[in-house]
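call fold(seq) -> tokens
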Amino acid sequence: MERVLGGNLIGKVDDADIYLEYRINEDLVLEEGAVKGLAPREPGAGVRAQSGTRTGYAHTDEISIKNLEEAARQARAIADRSASSGNLALPGRGRPHDLYTLAEPPIAAELARKLDLLRKIDAETRAADPRIKQVIASIASEEVIMLIATASGWTVGDIRPLTRLNVTAIAEDGAKREIGSYGGGGRVTFDFYLQEERWRRFAAEAARQAVLKLSAVDAPAGAMTVVFGPGWPGILLHEAIGHGLEGDFNRKGTSAFAGRMGQKVASELVTVVDDGTIANRRGSLNVDDEGTPTGRTVLIENGILTGYMQDRLNARLMGMKPTGNGRRESLRVRADAAHDQHVHARRPGRSRRRS
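ret:
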């Protein structure tokens, strides 16, 4: 680490880091009695250099000193083209969490147990109603091992388990066909699906939706009152104001919230919180993809704008504290920094790199 960062980046750019990742995915699908499976393993590393507002990024799928040094030189060459630099001291990184230490990672559970559950789900869903003609049940699991080393001298790692069980039911009545789907998961063990027989609830709900849609009629047109419950409607909040609360848009003055800190921006009934610290939840992380511990960031409180979501780059340029919202779309992705934080409620954002 010292050889790659020290010889190529330390003292020559404002910030730099090496990101190493080993990702194991397992996807199992039961459809029409046949099981399909995929279990790729993907190692890789990326080197990032930041100078002023410019970010240089290079990556390799083969982790070796030679490749990392070349990636560092390429990243520095891109970042060095910056005309100005704004190197500001940042507050402390904070203390990492331990939100999802598991007795057994979901990807390590026996294959036979997973296949047995998929077959039970298939039978349970079909038995719910004779109009259920097809069932697709799947279990997707992953484990991501990551390590970050920075030019400022600290390293941090994390092991991130993740799993989801999904059930899709297809119902038919004459020429009409409808689909229902339901599922769940998180940073939990495989046994999560067996506890309280959650899998039965997933199967029953998928079947209920499919059968109910068979009798559905067209919705009436016109203006009407709509009431949202908790859950997926949070995506609407994200799309409506989430991007506008990201640090880079406000630093550049392109957000409707730019320069409005401390001002009323919504009804006093509205409080918006980005929380990446809820144990075992899909969107929670111990540290973000830049090594910053995730946090609970109040963005709007009783209608008053109180904060932005920040990664390290924008926090440094704005003289603010990182909020643990730096997420990499992939160690191979290099996208415009104008979209560097893609943040959902209770989910840390995504930091995308530019070259």
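The longest helix spans residues 111-127.
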